[in-house]
Design brief:
It catalyses: guanosine(46) in tRNA + S-adenosyl-L-methionine = N(7)-methylguanosine(46) in tRNA + S-adenosyl-L-homocysteine. The chain is α/β, with parallel strands linked by helices. It contains 9 helices and 7 strands. The chain binds S-adenosylmethionine.
Amino acid sequence: MNDPSTIRRLYGRRQGHKLRDAQAHLVETLLPELSVPETGPLNAEVLFGDNRPLEFEIGFGAGEHLAGQASARPEHGFIGCEPFLNGMVGALGHVRDRELTNVRLHLGDALAVLERLPDASLDRVYLLHPDPWPKARHAKRRMVNHGPIDMIAAKLKPGCEFRLGTDDPTYCRWSMMVMNQRRDFEWQAKTPGDFLNRPADWPETRYERKARIKGHEVWYFRWKRTEA
Ligand SMILES: C[S@@+](CC[C@H](N)C(=O)[O-])C[C@H]1O[C@@H](n2cnc3c(N)ncnc32)[C@H](O)[C@@H]1O
């Protein structure tokens, strides 16, 4: 596993385009330093050695949003999860280039990390351009569903935000339907068109940029965790 060509063979081919030597080297050297521990309960002390506020990104893609938020708030700790190795390489590159010390990464399922955090421990959760699963028969696979949203609700501190971005009209409508049924979240749209404009503190993601180039509308949702 320590040999870059082995890493490339094991992950690069199976999960995306082949890793170059420099990318495999990054995975070999920087990822172990930044990885969320594989087992045991997690909190800010375990991850960062102090009691700082935590933010969590589900499926960070190539990591540009995670890195942007982490450099904007160096006093917060950021946990990012992404099962796609080529995306992880992107995030590692941003962490290295921006010399970020407040990011921890997990190559795998975000929910498996989320469930190990204490309840009411997160200051923000991001879900940006989740896989849309557009067919009705696949709707149960959408991240915006009762099980995952129950977990997000449990882990967010009351008064803190869950952010969702999507350019998929079905996902947009679905998310409004699922979230409007909940009493534990309050939609933060101040005006009817509010969710059409990206807030200034919301860095653009790669997927979002591609969607805009294709001429798609993008919707930006912010829900506040209530006390309910
Ligand atoms: C359409 S991409 C969007 C990536 C990125 N957020 C962006 O906006 O550019 C959806 C991402 O979610 C990731 N993903 C899907 N299920 C996940 C899960 N259970 N945990 C973490 N990431 C997941 C996928 O690997 C993929 O990279």
